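Board notes, transcribed. Complex of a protein with 9M6.
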Amino acid sequence: ANSHRLWPEIDRVVKQEVSMASLGVGECGSGWQLFAEDGEMRMFRREEEMDGMVVDPLKAVHVVKGITGHEVCHYFFNPQYRYDWETTLEHMIVLETVSEDTLIFHQTHKRIWPASQRDVVFWSHTRRLPNDQDRDGPDIWTVVNNSTEHPDHPANAGKCVRIFLTVCLLCQTRVDPPKDGAPVSRDDITCKITYCSVVNPGGWAPASVLRAVYKREYPKFLKRFTAYVKNQTKDKPIMY
Ligand SMILES: O=S(=O)(CCO)c1ccc(-c2ccc(C3CCCC3)c([C@@H]3C[C@@H]3c3ccccn3)c2)cc1
């Protein structure tokens, strides 16, 4: 709801993250290095440190047949599916339902040895965006997750180190209608997914350990999540 205290921040961050995610890896300055590739999925990172901590920005692009951007964002945004695909998740709770398209989460992630356990509080907002390039093409869908504070979960009050993140999932659907005028089926749709994330690990953790965790976990996450969406939607009507 645009009357909520967070609305100005949400609107600003969503617009800035969507414009960054829309840039190709070539365009948003050099420094992006390809670090994982699997079929249509390509993962890039920039090696950046903040106060001696690894905060490597990540940009992944993936092209998946048979699902739409609305479906990808639906399964990413809605909490009831998260334990099915987020393997590093230990606990998740919705602290506040701001509106049907904006939630505030608290999540604890499984401890990754030798780093101490982490938790995160973030607002999550999903939105349909007009498709500037192709007026009559399907809309673009996005989910943006951005760390925020919440009075019930102050940072570093418990056993977990509080991390800070900004994540943008940007999905563009393409429909190639069959030549013979048959109705569009899932074989005729493709989704181009861009996933950008910057995770500040909060407290110190060895750069080598964090980079190894990112190298292992991000490709696994995107492959597992997109396979989950394909499996969940394969026998359902297409959600544009
Ligand atoms: O896109 S989301 O919003 C989806 C909602 O869950 C999201 C993504 C990633 C994280 C996350 C939180 C902590 C950690 C680490 C940092 C130091 C020790 C734990 C990691 C590491 C990078 C590895 C990782 C990568 C991908 C997926 C899960 N794990 C990731 C949180 C949220």
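The first strand starts at residue 33 and ends at 38. The helical segments are 7-22, 69-77, 82-85, 207-233.
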